[in-house]
Amino acid sequence: MSENILSLKGVHTHIGAYHILHGVDLDVPRGQLTMLLGRNGAGKTTTLRTIMGLWQASQGSIRFDGRDITRRGTPDIAQLGIAYVPENMGIFADLSVRENMLLAARGARSIADIDTARLEWIFGLFPAMKKFWLHPAGKLSGGQKQMLAVSRAIVEPRKLLLIDEPSKGLAPAIIANMITAFRELKQTDTTILLVEQNFNFARQLGDSVAVMDDGRIVHRGPMAELAENEELQTRLLGLSLAAHQ
Fold it and tell me: Which of 186, 136, 230 lies closest to 245, judged by CA?
């Protein structure tokens, strides 16, 4: 489908005295995985946090699924069907995997209230979640914590996932597992906006791509087009995907 589930138009964000986003125009097509790429400090995380209402846009508009969410609070935005997986994962270290999942399932008072088929689907994506179901989340490995963070975000059906650098610091085998899981997620009705620094990860998963620089979107197009154009990669990102094969 060509319809955009999320659109940012002329979005500016200030954090204290700092002007971080300078008129971001970004469209996220429904049913696709859109990569948001850019050098460190380009404004990628600020964009996700602004969409989620954690930081308020000082100018411009954000529309999600036909609604203006520019001035809505984070709980209201989440209720509309957006889940956010921050770079720091946002899990509760002192709680078990089971308790973390229950907290993320807003409509459930007990594990029995969570759709069993959906839980089994998540266990299929991330078997470690079933293995460590009763273990404290803080004792999981880095890769397992990332799996838990994503599992929490999808424990209930979401229209849009905002995910910030899911492969950061992970071993290659865990990254491969994450790629497989995201490929399966892409087959559902979930739209994904994903910030990533691992360009091989981006190449394998992205349908479309937007590149940020200095708080602005400076390139939009198919991910495959960027993956095949080393000159464009170098100009936009400072290095080529080929260097990260």
Answer: 230
User: Where does residue 60 fall: left (phi above 0), alpha (psi -120 to 50 degrees), or beta otherwise?
Assistant: left
pLDDT band at 1 (very low <50, low <70, confident <90, very high): very low
> For residues 150 and 58, what is the distance between their CA atoms, to the nearest angstrom?
30
Which amino acid does the sequence have at 8? Answer: L
Q: Tell me, what DSSP letter sits at residue 96?
A: B
Q: Are 4 and 29 in contact (CB under 8 A)?
A: yes
The C-alpha atoms of residue 81 and residue 241 are separated, in whole angstroms, by 33
Kindly indicate the confidence band of residue 237, based on its pLDDT and cuts at 50, 70 and 90.
confident
d(CA 52, CA 75) in angstroms, rounded, equals 9
Residue ranges in the chain assigned as alpha helix (H): 44-51, 74-79, 97-104, 116-125, 127-131, 142-154, 172-186, 199-205, 223-227, 230-237
Count the neighbouring beta carbons within 10 Å of the beta carbon of residue 112: 7
Separation in Å, CA 160 to CA 90, 99, 172, 231: 18, 23, 26, 32
pTM: 0.91
- Token pair of 215, please? 């708080």
Q: How far is the C-alpha of 229 from the C-alpha of 232, rounded, in Å? A: 5
127 C-beta neighbours (distance < 10 Å), count:
12
pLDDT value of residue 188: 86
SS3 label, residue 184: helix
